[in-house]
Amino acid sequence: MATITEIARLARVSTATVSHVLNRTKPVSAKTRRIVEEIARELGYSPSRSARSLKTGRSATIGLIAPDLTNPFFPAIAQAVEAKARELGHGLIIVDCHNDPDEEQAAFALVGEYRVDGAIWIPVREDLERIRLPAPVVTLDRPIEGIDGVTAAHREGGRMVGREIAARGHGSVGILRGPAAHYSARERYEGLREGLGDAVPIGWTVEVPFSLDLGEEAEAAILDRPVSCIACANDQVAIRTLQLLARAGRAVPDEVSVIGFDDIAWSHFIHPPLTTVRQPYRALGTAAVELLFRRIAEPDAPRELKALPVTWIERESLRAI
Is 54's pLDDT higher than 70? Predict the structure, then answer.
């Protein structure tokens, strides 16, 4: 098995330099890094994580605590987080909390047992008091006061939806708003109302989960309380809305328009393709990892909250009146 000593001899550098290249612990010139990495690949060098952990006091792993991996938004985020963590030489431990606050507490205990260097947290409930943080933490999508965070510009996304509905001359809108307990849902809803202004009357508003299970009240509103446009909490809610309307023989967008939020992969392939607001999945995951590594390196740095821009995506489920 290849060793650091052998790599150092062939690269004509010190073992310390090889260690810095492979563990990314100190800056090394691009030329030296390239030579060391090429020799390591040629020799089939594979570092021992346990040995590195004993030497550095770090596990070279981070955690991702997610609320619900059945929601396509969160696996897309997880993929971006894993890619950036791997680029920085770290593995990723993912825990799904199944939207259960008790499982969320257990998730923090679990990543603590694995001695992760830090964790990215998408909260089930935005309540820090009940959580014991075992390592540096960055929130993603749902900020919490006092903790670094990365989120999308949810309020601006909501404004986009409201302005587009108004610009197309709609006479009434039904709103399937997300859970009021979640920052992202609150921001989208407030932004939507701001974007609508006084131009479009709100026919009805029903709070729904971020899932396909809308509940009886929401289904009754969709089917029995006609409006010209339905603004949905996210794309899963919009897809379920399209399904209910299709079963009832209501044509989209000829009889009623439907708008989602997130731009999950399914949104492009359903019928009709869904008009929505795109969240920058890769940028969100990448920024969260970068912010976490900054916090690990600089534990006393000021708290930082990043809000990344969203994009209006027009397809075929929205029409002008």
Answer: no
Q: Which phi and psi (to 5°) does residue 141 adopt?
A: 80, -40
Instruction: State the chain's mean pLDDT as an integer.
Output: 92
Cβ distance 121 to 130 under 8 Å? no
Same domain, 194 and 214: yes
**Same domain (yes/no): 158, 275:** yes
Q: What's the rounded mean pLDDT across residues 13-32?
A: 84
Tokens found for residue 61: 């792993």
**Domain-located, residue 315:** no
Q: C-alpha angle with apex 121: 26 to 147, nearest 5 degrees?
A: 75
The torsion region of residue 70 among left (phi > 0), alpha (psi -120 to 50) and beta comes to alpha
- Return the pLDDT at 125: 83
Neighbours of 310 (CB within 10 A): 23
**Cβ-count burial 21-30 (b if 16+ within 10 Å, e if not):** bbbbeeebee
Total count of domains within the chain = 3
Tell whether 19 and 123 lie within a shared domain: no
- Say how far residue 24 (Cα) sits from the centre of its chain: 26
Is 101 within 8 Å of 125 (Cβ atoms)? yes
Q: Is the pLDDT of residue 49 over 70?
A: no
What distance in Å separates the CA atoms of residue 187 and residue 171, rounded to the nearest whole number? Answer: 24
